Amino acid sequence: METLPISAESFKVGFIGAGKMAESIARGVVASGMLPQNRNSTAVHSNLNHRQVFESFGVNVFSSSEEVVKESDVVIFSVKPQVDRFVRVMPNTPAAVGEAASGNFSESLFVIYYYQMLTDDEHYVLRKIVMSLGTAATEEDGALVAKLFGSVGKMFKVDEKMFDAVTCLSGSGPAYIFLAIEALADGGVAAGLPRELALGLASQTVFGRATMVSKTGKHPGVLKDDVTSPGGTTIAGVHELEKGSWSCNNGEQNR
User: Fold this and answer.
1) Which range is most confident: 3-7, 32-36, 53-57, 248-252?
2) Is 58 among the annotated ligand-binding positions?
3) Structural domain count of the chain
4) Same domain, 128 and 222
5) Is 20 annotated as a binding residue?
6) Are residues 196 and 75 in the same domain?
7) Is 91 found in the same domain as 21?
8) Which SUPFAM superfamilies match (predicted)?
9) Whose CA is closest to 183, among 206, 213, 209?
10) Within-domain flag for 201
11) Does 19 show up as a binding residue in the annotation?
12) How far apart are CA 42 and CA 16, in angstroms?
C-alpha cells in the first residue's frame, strides 16, 4: 500500500476518544498556535458534557469515529485500553497515544507516551512526551509528530526497547516524588510548622529544584554540593538518607 505524505502546513488532527486525554492534547495544540481550532476534531456519541467541553474551545465534534477518520490526516487514539480493543502499547500506562498498523507493536506507525500536570483551572496539560517510531513510520512522520507534540511539551525520542524503563522512571516516578513531598512536609510539621505551610514549602522546594535541574543542565550531584555546607545540617541530613535506601549506591533496594 502506498504511503501518502502528510502536509505539515495544512494537516488536520482527529481524536478517537473525547476524554481528558484528548482534551489535554487538543487544548495544548490550540493554545500553542500549532493548529487552528477548526483543524481538530473528535467524536462524541452520547455524553453531552464532553461535546460542550470540546466545542467551547472550537474543536469540531462529530457523531461517529468514522467521520473523524475521514476528516483527519493524523488520527490519535486517546482511549482507555480496557474500554476499546487496541494493540498493547505498554503496561500500566496512565495515558498512551498511538496508531497501530498491525498486531505487532514494532510495526506501529508511532507510539506516544505522555505525562500530565493539573493546572489551576483543573485542565490537564502535557509536560513530557516520549515517542517511538515503528518500522512503518517515515522520518517525515516522526518530524510531524515531534512538531505536533513538541508544541505543547518536551519531546523525547527513544527506541521501543526502552519503553519499560520509561514506565518505571516517569510512569511510577511521580508516586515516589509525592512520597518525598509528604516526607518533607511531615518533617516540617515535626519541627513545629503548620501542616498547610509545611506542605506548601515542601512542594515548592521540589518544584524549584526540578526546574533548576531542567534549566541548568547540571548534574543533580553538583547542585546538591552547591547547597551543602561542610559540617552543616544539610550534609547531616544527606548522611542519614544515605544510611537508608535513598542513594543510588543502594541499587538493589531502589529497584
Assistant:
1) 53-57
2) no
3) 2
4) no
5) yes
6) no
7) yes
8) 6-phosphogluconate dehydrogenase C-terminal domain-like, NAD(P)-binding Rossmann-fold domains
9) 206
10) yes
11) yes
12) 6
> How distant is the alpha carbon of residue 202 from its chain centre?
23
Using alpha carbons, list the distances in angstroms from residue 133 to 100, 112, 118.
Answer: 11, 9, 28
**Has residue 39 been placed in a domain?**
yes
Range of the domain at 217: 174-229
CATH code, domain carrying 179: 1.10.3730.10
Residues 132 and 215 in one domain: no
Kindly report, residue by residue over 21-72, the tens digit of the pLDDT.
Answer: 788 788 888 888 888 888 999 999 878 888 998 999 889 999 888 899 888 8
CATH of the domain at 60: 3.40.50.720
Tell me the three cell numbers of residue 64.
461517529
Three cell numbers, residue 255: 529497584
Q: According to the annotation, is 21 in a ligand binding site?
A: yes
How big is the CA angle at 115 (ends 52 and 11), to the nearest 5 degrees?
A: 60
